[in-house]
TrEMBL record:
Belongs to the HscB family. Gene3D superfamilies: DnaJ domain (1.10.287.110), HscB, C-terminal domain (1.20.1280.20). Keywords: Chaperone. Pfam families: HSCB_C. One of its GO terms (molecular function) is protein-folding chaperone binding. The lineage of its organism: unclassified sequences, metagenomes, ecological metagenomes. PROSITE patterns: DNAJ_2 (PS50076). This is Co-chaperone protein HscB. InterPro entries: DnaJ_domain, HscB, HscB_C_sf, HscB_oligo_C, J_dom_sf. GO terms for cellular component: iron-sulfur cluster transfer complex. Residues 11-83 form the J domain. Transmembrane segments: none annotated. The gene is hscB_8.
Length: 185
C-alpha cells in the first residue's frame, strides 16, 4: 500500500491506467476499478493498525470517486476540461449562446403546452434526446479530435448540463405517477 500512497494524487485516468480521452473503454475502466478496489478494500486491513485502515479507507473512497466521474460521460467531459485548463465553473459562468437560450425557452413552452398530451411529450423527448446526442458528439470531437479545444468543450458541457436537467424534468413528466401501495399487514 505504500507504493499506492505515492500515487494518490494521480489524475483519474492515470489511476486506472487509461489514456486521458473522452472516449474510453468502459469494460477496461470497470476491470481496473475492481482490481484496485480488491487491493485496497478496507476489509483487507481489518487486522492492521489504525493508520493502515484509515489509508485503505481513503484509497477506497478516492478510487470510487474517480470511477464515478469517469463512468459518467458528462462528469468525464467536465473533468477533462478541468485537466486541460478549462474548468466548467457552472455556478459563476452561466453565459449561454442566444440561440441555445431561445431553444430552451421554446422547449419550456412546448413542455407547458404538452402537459397531459403524451404524444406531444414523446415528440419533445425525442427532440431533446436528439439535441443531447448531438452535443455529446460535439464534445467527443472537441475533447478527442485532431484539433482539441477544451474551452469550447467546457461551453458544450455547460449546455449539456442544462439539457440533462431539462431531460430529467421531461422524463419525470413522462413517467406514470406512482401510487403508494399499502404495507402488507
Amino acid at each position: 500500500m505504500s507504493a499506492m500512497h505515492e500515487e494518490f494524487a494521480q489524475d483519474h485516468f492515470a489511476l486506472f491506467g487509461l489514456p486521458q480521452r473522452y472516449t474510453l473503454d468502459a469494460d477496461a475502466l470497470t476491470a481496473a476499478w475492481r482490481r484496485l478496489q480488491a487491493a485496497v478494500h478496507p476489509d483487507r486491513f481489518a487486522a492492521a493498525g489504525a493508520a493502515q485502515q484509515r489509508l485503505a479507507l481513503q484509497w477506497s473512497s478516492r478510487i470510487n470517486g474517480a470511477y464515478r466521474t469517469l463512468r459518467d460521460p458528462l462528469q468525464r467531459a467536465a473533468y477533462l476540461c478541468e485537466l486541460r485548463g478549462a474548468p466548467i465553473d457552472a455556478e459563476r459562468n452561466t453565459a449561454m449562446p442566444a440561440e441555445f437560450l431561445a431553444q430552451q425557452m421554446d422547449w419550456r413552452e412546448r413542455l407547458d403546452d404538452a402537459l397531459g398530451d403524451a404524444a406531444a411529450l414523446d415528440a419533445l423527448a425525442r427532440t431533446v434526446r436528439h439535441e443531447r446526442d448531438a452535443v455529446y458528439a460535439r464534445l467527443e470531437a472537441l475533447l478527442d479530435g485532431a484539433v482539441a479545444d477544451a474551452h469550447a468543450a467546457a461551453a458544450q458541457v455547460r449546455v449539456l448540463m442544462f439539457i440533462e436537467r431539462f431531460h430529467q424534468d421531461l422524463s419525470s413528466r413522462l413517467a406514470p405517477p406512482r401510487t403508494l401501495q399499502p404495507a402488507a399487514a
